[in-house]
Amino acid sequence: MLPVFDMNELPTKTDSNVCCNAQNVHPILPHYQYDLVTESMSHDAISILLNPSNETQLITFLQGCGIIAAAQQCVYCGGGMRLKKDKTSWFWLCTRRVDGVKCNRGKFSVFDGTFLSKKKLSIQQVLWLIWNFVHHLNEQQCKQYMSIGQNNDKAVVKWYKVCRRICGDCIRKNPPKLGGFGVIVQMDEPYFAGAPKYGKGRRSGDESWDNFDKWGFALTTRGSLDCYIQQVDAGRSRKTLMPIINEHCLDGTVFCSDGWKSYLKLAEYLDLEDVVHFPVNHTANYVDPITGAHTQTVEGLWRHSFRDSV
Question: Is 203 contained in some domain?
Answer without folding.
Answer: yes
